[in-house]
Design brief:
single chain, 998 residues, alpha+beta, Rossmann fold, 36 helices, 29 strands, 14% strand
């Protein structure tokens, strides 16, 4: 958010001055002040303060600073601590705006010191934020004057040896101007001869303004004497519903009489102050400066102190501002969970006050947070809301800022044309309104688009201009980002040395500044450049440092699974480059450790939190260590094959045998053999028919062997001799990126033999996940429970798309469910019985879950977690059991995991989802997180009749022939393949076992 948008330069804080006689010493804590206060100097200083404010508001920061410096000197001469505090605070504002942050800090701290001196001399802040002065002197207690932020309360406390003292009201009636005369009788000692002037103060709706319209002269002799002093507080606005009432919502005057038997007089000290608001303001501005200097801990401390004061006041906008400033610092630290909390509080406040500019600004801040964690759709939603408000307010600067942020979000989504349009609009407005920070930001955005489009020289020019402006305005993040951007484009232009220099300059600039996101980005890019240069040791060090920072970010996200997934998507490249650096150093198995650290991290954390305390403790060990990886292979009694797609042209493969023997292969992918294109083409050949389509299309009859053989050549042939010769021995494939969509069972060798004919195949999201699914198998294996079978539910209406059509009925799925139910000794839920509510209620305690229905790939609820199982709707639900709902009920911390040992999603595309660095985000991941050790899911839409046949055969093998899950599925596939009726891979190759075979 824009700093300092809603704060005044300093909140009003006026001290009511009385005649400079002896009692003022107790207020100012300086005995000499009684003789030194000069009304003329005070008036001149106040005038200079006002002139400085006018100059500041007009943008003349230096001239304002000069006025306040002179005012400060005058206040110091006359001992006016309140004036000193305000002058120092305003000087801090000027220094801050001028970019002199060190002097700004000194000025703000000096201001706070003055306020502390006032507090130490008697002014205190109560629990409600009221500020009052109270001090007791030997034999006497002073008048208490308290301000609660909405007015003035005067109380007179009794002291020994005091005469009658009264605060009397003069005037009457509601809506009238009242005078309150405070009269005191002074005595008890000799005072020097002096002439004093009592000032008149206006008190109206909590606002205090000095006036010189009424004065009284007082004199004293060198001898002991009695003297009467009279002070008028003029124009107290009193408004109430009753004419007889003297109390209004803005000002309360308490009339107190205190009498004692003594004839001697008492002294009275009177003062009015609203220093708590001023201190909150100074602390907030001090936090801003610390933030600009990158001292985030000091910034948080300042904001926290400021917030504590502001929350005790009556101005919620002050609270909202401080929340906003604090969120910026936490954003820089990467604590996005805390940022969202602060921004939600802030948004509630500004909406409640109908503060439209504030609402727009908070929405921008929320958009920034979602951009940081990679949730670009939510970011765009917030930016668009903000943009509409700025447009209504005709705020060009706000609109320009939001346009740039929309450009960035669309750019990160890969929508280059849309992004370019927004960036150009921002640049035009920034030039027109001449805002340097906006201009720097717009130049950077246009540079990003040019870089993505391969227009490297144009990008370099944009970034150079961005850096030049950023240095002038001394904006830390703009300077850092422009240096990093110049490094990126220089690397693209083959100027590696220059790129390294830019990255190192950025890192040097970030020293002693806490901007971890920018630091990790610079370190990661530096590692890439050093790899290109061949400086492998330094590249490794730089990349490991970057990963250390990235992983610290994750710790701050708590249980926010979606945020961790989105954030990691922006970090995955660092892990890939480090793998390449390690392999080039002939450290391929250290590279395997990094490959494991760089996948399914959020899922592993969910699995750990879902276990019992004892299981959690045993699972804390780092599963990515080589010793653990070997142990997992032995426990699984399987050969593990892990892939890592380093780039479009480079593939790494590791093979870990049950004996602990490990092998590594590096595969160069030909330019004309893109794995992504091969996977897409093979799937197009295979998956040409829908679940309820029993007639092959023209594409389905096309020979897919060539594509499947090419994939076999790249993925299997380099490691073929390392795979077990016994076809009953298990092979667990751990895919990466697009390889999650590969139908491994259908890959063909040069002799047209399918891989499933030679090996028993499973898949897993990572090696680490196998250790944890094994623990879940141990958790559920002795639990009792019935089978839950459902098929062909009454189909709900689709909520996506313009037609909102109802999904087709699946008669084959109904027959499948009935046959499977017989094998599992239960009754299938069919049609309207298979409601979402009924299924969810029975899922919790089911031993086996089989759902034969449609599967959807879409993010039904728009929460960033795609995938849904289609069930019958009811009054309590919509009929779509989404992956996010499964996660929320069974997968997140503080939820009870499922008891099922096996879940079969006999539906379309249930093994698919959105492929990210974390892995496949969809139904299968949600069920693994929910504690299910074994899943059977599909990679494409399978014909209805073929699915029925395959599933009946699978359950027969599993429960009647007592095969393990992987062997049962393999035998079912071979039965269909060898039977002659279903040789097409579309009929049998879609399904795979994920997780545990036993």
């Amino acid at each position: 958010m824009k700093l300092k948008k809603f704060f005044f330069i300093a909140l009003a804080s006026i001290t009511l001055q009385f005649c400079p006689i002896s009692f003022l010493a107790f207020l100012t804590s300086s005995p000499a002040i009684a003789d030194s206060i000069a009304p003329r100097q005070k008036t001149e200083a106040d005038k200079l303060m006002e002139q400085g404010k006018e100059l500041y508001d007009s943008g003349q920061r230096t001239e304002a600073l000069k006025k306040w410096e002179v005012a400060l000197g005058l206040y110091q001469q006359i001992g006016d601590i309140q004036g000193e505090a305000e002058a120092w605070g305003n000087m801090g504002h000027s220094y801050r705006e001028l970019g002199n942050y060190v002097k700004a800090i000194d000025a703000y701290n000096s201001s706070l010191a003055m306020f502390e001196r006032i507090a130490e001399s008697g002014w205190e802040t109560n629990a409600n934020g009221s500020v009052y002065y109270k001090t007791t002197i030997t034999g006497q207690e002073n008048l208490i004057v308290a301000s609660n932020g909405s007015g003035l309360t005067i109380k007179i406390a009794s002291t020994p040896n005091s005469q009658s003292i009264a605060v009397s009201n003069v005037g009457g009636g509601s809506n009238s101007t009242n005078q309150v005369r405070v009269t005191s009788t002074l005595g008890g000692g000799s005072v020097s001869s002096s002439q004093c002037q009592s000032s008149v103060t206006t008190i109206s709706q909590g606002s205090y303004q000095s006036s010189s319209s009424s004065t009284s002269q007082c004199h004293s002799s060198s001898s002991y004497s009695r003297q009467s002093s009279s002070t008028t507080i003029n124009q107290v606005q009193s408004q109430s519903s009753s004419g007889s009432s003297r109390q209004s919502s803005s000002t309360t005057i308490s009339q107190v009489q205190s009498q004692s038997g003594s004839g001697s007089s008492r002294q009275i000290s009177v003062g009015i102050v609203s220093n708590s608001s001023a201190q909150a303001d100074i602390l907030a501005n001090l936090g801003i400066v610390y933030g600009k200097l990158g001292n985030t801990r000091a910034a948080i401390d300042s904001f926290s102190r400021s917030l504590s004061i502001a929350e005790g006041g009556n101005n919620p906008i002050d609270v909202a501002n401080i929340l906003g400033y604090t969120s910026i610092v936490y954003n820089n630290l990467g604590d996005y969970q805390e940022v969202i909390k602060l921004q939600e509080r802030q948004l509630d406040i500004v909406k409640g006050k109908n503060n439209r500019p504030g609402e727009a600004e908070v929405l921008v801040g929320k958009g920034d947070t979602y951009t940081k964690i990679g949730d670009y759709q939510k970011a765009i939603k917030n930016y668009q809301q903000s943009s509409r408000i700025y447009e209504q307010l005709k705020d060009d600067a706000g609109e320009a800022e939001t346009l740039g942020k929309l450009g960035r979000a669309y750019h990160l989504l890969g929508e280059i044309s849309q992004a370019r349009n927004y960036y150009h609009k921002q640049l035009n407005i920034a030039y027109e309104i001449k805002r340097p920070r906006l201009l720097a930001n717009a130049l950077g955005g246009n540079g990003d688009i040019s870089l993505s489009s391969g227009e490297y020289q144009t990008a370099f020019n944009y970034y150079s201009q961005q850096l030049e402006i950023a240095q002038v305005i001394n904006e830390v993040k703009e300077i850092t980002n422009s240096l990093i951007n110049l490094g990126k484009v220089s690397h693209k232009m083959k100027n590696t040395e220059e790129a390294i220099e830019y990255y190192q300059t950025a890192l040097n600039y970030l020293q002693n500044r806490e901007y971890p996101y920018e630091e990790a980005t610079a370190l990661s890019n530096l590692g890439k450049a050093l790899l290109t240069q061949g400086n492998l040791l330094e590249a490794e060090a730089s990349l490991r440092d970057a990963i250390g920072i990235w992983e610290d970010f994750r710790k701050l996200l708590g249980s926010k699974d979606n945020w961790k997934i989105s954030l990691f998507e922006k970090q995955v490249d660092t892990y890939n480059v480090l793998q390449e650096v390690l392999v080039d150093q002939n450290k391929p198995f250290e590279a395997l450790e990094i490959a494991e650290r760089g996948r399914t991290r959020a899922l592993i954390e969910l699995l750990l939190k879902g276990l019992s305390p004892a299981q959690q403790e045993s699972a804390i060990a780092d599963y990515s260590k080589l010793s653990e990886i070997k142990q997992i292979a032995a426990q699984q009694k399987a050969t593990l094959v892990e892939y890592s797609l380093i780039s479009e042209n480079l593939l790494y493969i590791w093979v870990i045998q049950p004996t602990g023997k490990m092998e590594f292969r590096s595969v160069d992918i030909p330019q004309n053999a893109s794995i992504s294109e091969l996977v897409t083409a093979s799937r197009q050949f295979i998956s040409a028919r829908s679940r309820n389509d029993n007639n092959p299309t023209s594409d389905a009859t096309t020979e897919p062997s060539h594509r499947l053989q090419q994939l076999h050549q790249l993925l299997i042939e380099p490691i073929a001799e390392l795979l077990p010769s016994d076809e009953q021995e298990r092979v667990v494939f751990i895919p990466h990126h697009e390889l999650f969509l590969v139908p491994f069972a259908a890959l063909q060798d040069t002799n047209y033999k399918y891989l499933i004919e030679k090996h028993t195949i499973l898949t897993a999201p990572s090696i680490q996940s196998l250790a944890l699914t094994r623990q879940h198998r141990q958790r559920v294996q002795n639990l009792s429970g019935e089978a839950l079978v459902a098929g062909n539910p009454t189909m709900p209406q689709l909520r996506l798309g313009p037609n909102r059509s109802r999904l087709d009925s699946l008669q084959g799925a109904e027959r499948e469910a009935e046959q499977v139910a017989v094998i599992l000794n239960t009754k299938a839920l069919i049609g309207s019985q298979a409601t979402e509510t009924a299924i969810v209620q029975r899922m919790q305690n089911a031993k086996v879950i089989h759902l034969a229905t449609h599967g959807l790939l879409d993010d039904i609820n728009g929460v960033g977690s795609p995938g849904a199982i289609v069930l019958a709707p009811s009054a309590q639900d919509d009929g779509f059991l989404t992956s996010s709902e499964i996660m929320e009920q069974y997968g997140l911390p503080n939820t009870t995991p499922l008891q099922a040992e096996l879940v079969v999603l006999s539906a379309c595309d249930t093994g698919r989802g959105e492929i990210k660095g974390e892995g496949v985000i969809g139904l299968s991941r949600s069920l693994i997180a929910a504690g299910v050790p074994s899943l059977v899911v599909s990679l494409w839409k399978v014909p209805d009749h073929a699915t029925q046949e395959l599933m009946v055969e699978f359950y027969t093998n599993l429960y009647e022939r007592k095969l393990d899950k992987a062997q049962a599925l393999r035998k079912a596939m071979l039965t269909m393949l060898d039977g002659g009726e279903n040789p097409d891979p579309v009929d049998w190759a879609a399904f795979t076992v994920i997780g545990e075979a036993e």
